[in-house]
Amino acid sequence: MSIKVALAGNPNSGKTTLFNALTGSNQFVGNWPGVTVEKKEGKLKGHKDVALMDLPGIYSLSPYTLEEVVARNYLINERPDAIINIVDGTNIERNLYLSTQIMELGIPVIMAVNMLDVLEKRGDKIHINKLSEKLGCEVVEISALKGTGIRDLANKAVKLAESKKKNTVVHKFANEVEEVIDETKGLLSADIPEEQKRFFAIKLLERDEKIREIMRTVPDVSKQIDKLEKAFDDDTESIITNERYVYISSIIKDCVTKAKSDKLTASDKIDRIVTNRILALPIFAVVMCIVYYISVTTVGTWATDWTNDGVFGDGFHLFGIGTAQYEEDLDKWADENVFSTELEQIAEKAVKENVAGAEEVKDAIADKDFGAFEEAYGSYNDAFDEKGLNMDEALGDAIDEEGEFTGPDTSEYGVWVPGIPVLVGNGLEAIHCNDFLTGLIIDGIIAGVGAVLGFVPQMLVLFIFLAFLESCGYMSRVAFIMDRIFRKFGLSGKAFIPILIGTGCGVPGLMATRTIENDRDRKMSLMTTTFIPCGAKLPIIALIAAALFNGAWWVAPSAYFLGMFAIITSGIILKKTKLFAGEPAPFVMELPAYHWPTVGTVLRSMWERGWSFIKKAGTIILLSSIVVWLGSHFGNTGSGFGYSSDMELADSVLGSIGNVVKWIFAPLGFNDATATVATIMGLVAKEEVVGVFGVLDFEGMLPVAGYAFLAFNLLCAPCFAAMGAIKREMNNSKWFWIAIGYMTCFAYLTALVIYQIGGLIVGETGFGIFTIIAILVVIGFLYLLFRPSKENN
Ligand SMILES: Nc1nc2c(ncn2[C@@H]2O[C@H](COP(=O)(O)OP(=O)(O)OP(=O)(O)O)[C@@H](O)[C@H]2O)c(=O)[nH]1
Ligand SMILES: [Mg+2]
């Protein structure tokens, strides 16, 4: 025999926190209402046969949104053996409204008053014995976050479920109301058990449409409704709501003692600033700038460089010991052996002749920056050679026959840990592995998977920030601030929550749209949520920022704001069309008090998100890397189709595909087979975009074209997983294709405008037919944005 215990309560009351603590699972917790949108089952620790069910939060048993229906249907149809009604102790009055309804379900109930730690800090006191007496069920106090009292609660809940002691309602409404309820109970058919009759009678009186659907026979209660409405001169739903509140306020006086204080709480003080009409947006912008700057440009880059160049590169000095000495020696060696006047002259000549990369080479020589020179030499030596400018001659002994610099050997300093490719390469050489396999393993798998894994540190840093902002309560303020602005355009701030979650990963973000009650608004959210850069798009941003913009600080935040811009303008434009017109649903969001998240919560949330990316690297990315490598090494060898270790991209299968479709992207500035292949592979998983550049060489793109490439990849159709989620949530193929089509068009036009107009401004492109098209796109866009809405006409 197995026992089912369900957790039911208001949104943001701590159900999932309690669920995680009692089952040892790791479900998503956030400090805003509506985090959980699906039911989740787990095994209660220490009780073999007890299953615990986490449900989405609900304010009442009259559901309005999809996830509320999930919770109510579970309670009514599946009838768990007991309900733990979790109540936010800091908001007890509002929470009890749901409790009075849960008591009517005829299922054993135990009440858990949560947030004991906060109550204690404030000096408020809840008299649980009195509360228990008045409500007619057992009441315990807990802190789900700190773990206080939760074991006791679990044991009591299990005992209660085993005892099968049906909850009987002790509260009474006004006599007239009770009379009508009794009358209605008499009309219900016999298949409804006695203890559930009150619940069904009240729902019928409240004209709850959805409850009729689950009843086998529906009695006619219109007379009873009329009677009640005449007597109270109000509609039945309000009458009953009112009765519940009258009852709650009659008991609350005796059960709660609040510490006297008229001082503003710390939360109120913070909110005065962060939700201030003028300051709110700039503060949000600064916060997100810092988050992206730190994750992508500073801490993140440092960690990512180490993984890319060290672990998945040549290797690294253990604990950095020896690095400084090595660099000093290298500089000295380069001064003496590399930078000669002869080399300088070649570079100057190259600049005059406009050879690709000449400026970079010249600057590196002028700065005596060997790292920069080595990189520029690697990229542009061929271009120099073509113009008859021979750098190798000038370099003399500084370079060996294979084109490797002969400077000091890193492995002679400190403790040198070779990178994975070096180790594996040596291993493969030792067993005389053939060329093909060595290439596939080193240049295909390790380079491809490594390129993606290398960015995991950056993602983890981003996830730490997100976890912190989410669980401290700031993100719910952002939704509140956004609501104020969105409302002006007929949009609801609720649409903002999926976006915040989507910053981690689009899939849960799309699922979060379930809290939007209006179907049109929800569809619109599904179409635009994945515009926000998710964790997997971070590597693309980092790659472009580092490779083309010298790691400029503004690139990463700009990608975030570009996503935001796409969402907001899309919202405004779409809302003005007939398809989506309509008043925004009211968005009532209480702002939960700020609190310091525990280190455990933040780390767990970071790990949960990070781990799914690492798993992806071992599966989808691994497979894609193999496909990309094979595709780029099989092709026309000159003597028919076959494998060649130094196949030119243009001759390969992949290159041919890229060449066939690359014209599509020519107006966007990346008329290049690699970038095209990367974009296509990005549909499988966004990280694969950098994976492709790991396998195929990154050929120098010009900055504006690079930014257009970035914009297109950020905004176009998301990865397969997210597309699947859109399909599921839309539940309609036509709408799915509308969504994908819309995103792709939006991305294409944005990238077009960036490349054509941006390029014209910085002098990268000339004036042409596409410039005119780009200008027309901008005009059309502004028109759609500012035209009067259909509704007003
Ligand atoms: N101080 C304090 N905070 C808590 C406690 N329990 C939960 N929280 C915090 O309250 C917030 C909401 O917790 P969740 O567990 O996501 O709430 P939920 O009831 O599952 O919310 P929904 O899924 O939206 O219905 C989180 O920020 C938790 O860290 C507690 O006992 N004390
Ligand atoms: Mg939850």
Helices and strands in order, then pairings?
Elements: E1 3-9, H1 15-23, E2 40-43, E3 50-54, H2 66-78, E4 82-88, H3 92-102, E5 109-114, H4 116-122, E6 125-126, H5 128-135, E7 138-141, H6 150-163, H7 175-187, H8 197-205, H9 209-214, H10 222-232, H11 236-255, E8 256-257, H12 266-274, H13 280-297, H14 299-311, E9 315-317, H15 323-337, H16 341-352, H17 358-367, H18 370-386, H19 391-395, E10 416-418, H20 420-430, H21 435-453, H22 456-472, H23 474-488, H24 496-502, H25 506-511, H26 519-528, H27 538-549, H28 555-575, H29 599-633, E11 634-636, E12 641-643, H30 653-661, H31 673-681, H32 688-695, H33 703-715, H34 720-730, H35 733-762, H36 769-786
Parallel strand pairs: 1-3, 1-4, 4-5, 5-7
Antiparallel strand pairs: 2-3, 6-8, 9-10, 11-12
Helix pairs in contact: 3-11, 5-11, 7-8, 7-10, 13-14, 13-22, 13-28, 14-22, 16-17, 17-18, 20-21, 21-29, 21-32, 22-29, 26-35, 27-33, 28-33, 29-32, 30-31, 31-32, 33-35, 34-35, 35-36
This protein binds guanosine-5'-triphosphate (GTP) and magnesium ion.
Magnesium ion binds at residues 15-16, 35-36.
List key phrases describing it:
binds guanosine-5'-triphosphate; Rossmann fold; 793 residues; elongated; 4 domains; 6-stranded mixed β-sheet; alpha/beta
Question: Any overview of this molecule?
Answer:
With 793 residues, the chain is α/β, with parallel strands linked by helices. The chain folds into 4 domains: 3-163, 3-Layer(aba) Sandwich (Rossmann fold); 175-257, Orthogonal Bundle (Helix Hairpins); 320-415, no CATH class; 459-792, no CATH class. The protein is 59% helix and 6% strand. Strands 2-3-1-4-5-7 form a 6-stranded mixed sheet, with helices on both faces. Helix 3 (92-102) packs across helix 11 (236-255), helix 5 packs antiparallel against helix 11 and helix 14 (299-311) runs antiparallel to helix 22 (456-472). The longest helix has 35 residues, at 599-633. The chain is elongated, with a radius of gyration of 32 Å. Bound molecules: guanosine-5'-triphosphate (GTP) and magnesium ion. Guanosine-5'-triphosphate binds next to helix 1 and helix 4. This is Ferrous iron transporter B. Residues 2-163 form the FeoB-type G domain. InterPro entries: Fe2_transport_prot_B_C, FeoB_Cyto, FeoB_GTPase, G_FEOB_dom, Gate_dom, P-loop_NTPase. The chain crosses the membrane at residues 278-296, 445-469, 489-512, 524-548, 554-574, 613-631, 704-723, 735-755, 767-786.
